[in-house]
Amino acid sequence: MAARTPKDAAPPRVPRVGFVSLGCPKALVDSESILTQLRAEGYDIAPSYEGSDLVVVNTCGFIDAAVQESLDAIGEAMAANGKVIVTGCLGARGDVVREAHPRVLAVTGPHATPEVMAAVHAHLPKPHDPFTDLVPPQGIRLTPRHYAYLKISEGCNHRCTFCIIPSMRGDLVSRPVGEVMQEAEHLVRAGVKELLVISQDTSAYGVDVKYRTGFWGGKPLRTRMTELCEALGGLGAWVRLHYVYPYPHVDEVIALMAGGRILPYLDVPFQHASARILKLMKRPAAGEKTLERIRAWRRECPELAIRSTFIVGFPGETEAEFEELLGFLREARLDRVGCFTYSPVEGAKANGLPGAVPEEVKQERLARFMAVQAGVSRERLAEKVGREIDVLVDDVEGRIALARSSSDAPEIDGIVRVKGAKGARAGEFLRVRVTASGDHDLEAVAA
Ligand code: SF4
Hints:
By secondary structure, the protein is of the alpha/beta class. It contains 12 helices and 20 strands. α1 packs across α4 and α11 (319-332) packs parallel to α12.
């Protein structure tokens, strides 16, 4: 038999990595960074455990349910594949992972692309011919083509007593403003219509580098939330801010919203309304006069939609303090609200506070909270009936377009169901007239 020459030998098989991404948008951005690097180095991303040479599991460790979900996902990958690298928030607690799954190949914390890649290289060598030109400049994204998360910093300088994120992700580290802008520009060029700015504390952007002046497009640009928003607003996409704390300089971005530069949408995790509970929680900006601030923001920008999250049943929360929270909800008339019962995450300082609230009381408070907010949300949405608004189409089902307005962030807020949107496509903006409203969603027709 004639010997096979290198020319007619089969091409080397491309190593394949499976990927499981759990957790919040910050974890999702970490996943995107790892996937981008894997593709840049020539690895294939496999859609199944069986077809993978190894599996990376990006975990979440925020509450006990998330820890369990992460441990289950690791177990599933171990059973189906056997070669597993663990990263993400739960990875910061390596002992928990190794105790449950001692045979995982490696464990890293969150925001650790270089460490994950080092582990991948150790167990699945890099292909010789990296197809770097196959990776688009905007990297690999897990979100639909028309919106993308833009992470501007990592870590947090606060020490809220219910949260263990700083112990997992460390203190605030702001990304260089030029790098953030370049990524945003690549995304918009690639077809992204909406940029969702995320971090642990968006309003603290640049504090760690003393608001250093960076450069973008050959011009100086300060590493600061207002200046970043102003620049992002010039790219021609919707810009939506998440995780903003009500520090005084937030007023500056309200002016940008009123001027149409960025979306009139503010995601402010208030967590509670009682001054004593906020102090026990050690919340940033706990001393701010929140209701006054909200009224002033709305005076300046009547279109403003405010989203927030709250915790009920925090240790020591009395019935009177909970009632104060309900009173705040009625007064503040927030547009979008999420609520959790207090979950004693292992390692959180608040677990040591006296006055743990019994589970049934927590559940009862959650139900009362949600009932009040459903009423507020219904009223707020009903005010929009008859108005014309702009929406961004996420999906089309027959003649109905499922879209979002400036008040709706993807995944967490409501939707606008547009009838008669024949020919509409995902990623398109439509002008619509609102015809009906419910507890969370709107109905509309093309205007
Ligand atoms: S601000 Fe508080 S809740 Fe948010 S990440 Fe920092 S410590 Fe955790």
